[in-house]
Design goal:
The complex is a heterodimer of chains A (437) and B (162). By secondary structure, chain A is an alpha/beta fold. Chain A is built from 17 helices and eleven strands. Chain B has helices spanning 9-19, 31-42, 47-57, 61-70, 90-93, 97-108, 151-161; strands spanning 82-87, 114-115, 121-126, 138-140, 144-146. The N and C termini of chain B lie far apart (42 Å).
């Protein structure tokens, strides 16, 4: 039970790992990172005076896509920053990892924090920003403290601050600690939170690249996205791209949780078959049969076993299968799990975490939760099934941020793929399967 | 102004360090850190404590209240000496979180959002910590994460805290 405790074998994240390669849980310090070849990318950028445009072009070529959930091409995002804009511009890392099923950034931050720091410094150089913030999830205080220590190390070594490595380039980086709000994982909610406000997402446009933190141009990327940048600079965009598939470059850390023998983080090439990933997690717990899998975090549509077993783990393949890669959180449910009860817990989550700003989400998430709750407890009506879909459709796409969609997608997909279980609950007032979630 | 010093010099020094992370005209950005530091010292955030934080940062009290009530880890009502928050979200539930939660309720004799009569423990149901691989996972007083909490480990934790 639980993730590997340090020191663990250096190949724990899988044979193809590049970001998490060689980690044993204890070797997180600057000297260890340098011994693994760390900060070579930054030195290369600064000593060869690589033009910022070239770095952005290289990222575009690498097909690195956002690792936080949306999968937006990183190079393209970086190209939106108005480099010539005079005055302050900001770089922000979204380490507010709270999407149920996702726990990769926690490992990255505590076991390899300098990979993020180096990636952010290079990002600052490429986009002409001189200040960055790393927004760390509220519930992982010990990880936040480690990030603070890692920043101190980087400052002392001259990787942060004024005139970095004698190049004339200035960049300063700070950690900001959240305190418990899922919505701050949404990038503009995060910006509001950084400004010391409630994390209520902003209407877009304007997008953060023109109007972000403190009303200044801002780029926000996920932790894992930044951490992939140094490897790309050192090894080249083509090498990164060839690790994955066209339009799906590189490796991806998948967090596998639920009914598997060894829940954990595994960094694999994009395009790896789902069956291989399942095997890395030790296979199904108790040799039970797979029933369902949410392949990209709780906000993404659930897929049944037959579809999942044929799917490869990359953005385009999972989309083709009817779900999304999202944050790379793979939640596994075995044949004994009640789908109504599983959905009930997720629906409660979105009801609880809706910030209340938009009416469809504020009212709709509660409505969805109450309907699933009465179906689970034997008081459902057959017309509830269509009503659930109808309410979901009236939330999705009608709110400022994607939390509304995130609440709607699980409902629709659970009913689509496991309708018979919902019907059984309504007709018989009980589960089709043993009830012990 | 001669408002009483609600927080210790040590806490104020910590708040000053947090303030230094943000532009000089953006003191409001430090409100989350300031409330965290204040709560650590006081156990919970009373209106007096929040007013003091507002005054110290130079922002309206309402700006502090709305942050303190928006983020779930701030306590604007008194809690027990040890606040135990356990995640019961789906990935954790699939890995035994509900068993752990029931064990805690039984051992402490309280339900979620309740405090033991001796004021030692408050039990809370929490949402995703981003540590699902370590389920069942709980937080003691927001900052100490306890992983893979089997019934035996839960008993040992409660014994240690008592």
């Amino acid at each position: 039970m639980g993730l590997p405790v340090p020191p663990f074998p250096t190949d724990s994240y899988g044979p193809d790992a590049i970001i998490m390669k060689g980690l044993d849980g204890l070797n997180w310090r600057l000297k260890d990172y340098e011994a693994r070849g760390g900060y070579a990318a930054l030195k290369k950028v600064l000593s060869e005076k690589i033009p910022p445009d070239q770095i952005v072009a290289e990222l575009k070529k690498s097909a690195l896509r956002g690792r936080g959930g949306a999968g937006f091409p990183t190079g393209l995002k970086w190209s939106f920053m108005p480099r010539q804009f005079p005055g302050a511009k900001y770089l922000v890392c979204n380490s507010d990892e709270g999407e149920p099923g996702t726990f990769k950034d926690r490992d990255l931050l505590r076991y390899n924090p300098h990979a993020l720091i180096e990636g952010m410094i290079i990002g600052g150089y490429a986009m002409g920003t001189t200040v960055g913030y790393n927004y760390v999830h509220g519930e992982i205080w010990d990880v936040f403290e480690r990030c603070e220590e890692a920043l101190d190390e980087a400052r002392a070594a001259g990787y942060l601050g004024r005139n970095i490595l004698g190049s004339g380039f200035d960049f300063q980086l700070y950690n900001h600690h959240g305190y418990g709000a899922y919505i701050c994982g949404e990038e503009t909610g995060l910006l509001e939170s950084l400004e010391g406000k409630k994390g209520m997402p902003r209407f877009k446009p304007p997008f953060p690249a023109s109007y972000g933190l403190y009303c200044k141009p801002t780029t926000i990327n996920n932790t894992e996205t930044f951490a992939a940048v140094p490897w790309i600079i050192v090894n080249g965009a083509e090498a990164f791209l060839s690790l994955g598939r066209p339009n799906n470059g590189g490796t991806k850390i998948f967090s596998v949780s639920g009914d598997v023998e060894r829940p954990g983080n595994f960094e694999v090439r994009l395009g790896t078959p789902f069956a291989t990933l399942l095997e890395m997690a030790g296979g199904m717990r108790g040799r039970r049969r797979l029933k369902a899998c949410i392949p990209g975090g709780s906000s993404m549509p659930v897929l049944p076993e037959d579809i999942m077993m044929k799917t490869d783990m990359d953005y385009d393949s999972i989309a083709k299968a009817g779900s999304m890669l999202g944050s790379g959180a793979v939640i596994i449910m075995d044949e004994t799990r009640c789908m109504v009860r599983s959905l009930l817990r997720l629906s409660y989550f979105y009801f609880e975490e809706s910030c209340g700003q938009c009416t469809p989400c504020r009212e709709g998430t509660g409505w969805l939760y109450r309907m699933v709750d009465r179906i689970e407890h034997g008081k459902g009506r057959m017309e509830d099934l269509d009503l659930l879909t109808n309410v979901s459709d009236n939330i999705a796409g009608r709110t400022i941020c994607a939390l509304g969609d995130a609440a709607a997608l699980p409902v629709k997909s659970f009913i689509k793929h496991f309708r018979d279980e919902f019907v059984h609950h309504i007709e018989h007032g009980k589960c089709l399967v043993p009830d012990y979630l | 102004m001669n408002a009483p010093m609600i927080l210790s010099p040590d806490a104020l020094a910590k708040i000053d360090r947090a303030l230094a992370k943000y532009p000089a005209d953006q003191r409001r950005s430090a409100v989350m850190a300031a409330l965290t530091i204040a709560q650590d010292e006081k156990g919970w955030l009373s209106p007096e404590t929040m007013d003091f934080v507002a005054q110290y940062l130079g922002i309206p009290p309402i700006a502090v209240y709305e942050v303190a009530t928006f983020y779930t880890m701030y306590d604007v009502k008194p809690v027990g000496r040890h606040k135990i928050a356990i995640c019961t979200n789906l990935p954790c539930a699939l890995q035994g979180a509900n068993v752990a939660a029931e064990h805690l309720k039984k051992a402490l004799g309280v339900g979620f959002n309740e405090t033991t009569p001796d004021g030692a423990f408050t039990l809370k149901e929490a949402e995703c910590f981003g540590a699902c691989g370590d389920a069942p996972v709980l937080l003691v007083n927001n900052k100490r994460m306890c992983c893979a909490m089997t019934p035996d480990k839960l008993d040992a934790l409660l014994k240690e805290l008592k």
